[in-house]
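Protein modeling request. Please complete all fields; requests missing the sequence field cannot be processed.
Requester role: graduate student
Desired output: 3D structure, token encoding
Chains: 1
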Amino acid sequence: MQNRPIIIGVTGGSGGGKTSVSRAILDHFPNEKISMIEHDSYYKDQSHLTFEERVKTNYDHPFAFDTDLMIEQIKELLAGRPVDIPTYDYTEHTRSNKTYRQEPQDVFIVEGILVLEDQRLRDLMDIKIFVDTDDDVRIIRRIKRDMEERGRSLDSVIDQYLGVVKPMYHQFIEPTKRYADVIIPEGASNKVAIDLITTKIEKILEEAREG
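Delivered output (211 residues):
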């Protein structure tokens, strides 16, 4: 294993294709020690709130995330030590009591809507990617995902999108585009961008091994 893992940040709006881009990178390196860490795993514990209060949480605001814990755990992984990453229960709207063990790797993809928002997190990254997708495409994907995977009603998804998701995107997420090394329009379907990124990662891995 090389001395220090490569950290790749992947961000963009909800439903913009961040996960697809991250998966495309993962799939390109089947023989490498590479893992994805999702910012969503670090939503704050809300067990002290009533269910009604939890439902009203603004999940697209930086305050919703325990980014301090994420930074602490990434630093542990950079030092070659395993960590226990929290998991989030979307039906109960709070952190679950389960964690998963993440072993050190050669490459980590750090994925989430606000991973470029905190300078301390940005400073740990070797490559910063912003997936830039049209608002219309993102709401359609979000409706489909939240209804199929998270048991939400159409009205609740639309209300949340118009009331919180869209304004938060323009306030907090879109401005982080300026920190990106690479901006990918249309996500994983942009094969040229994926090829450029995976080639760059290969080069970094090779140099690390030779060094």
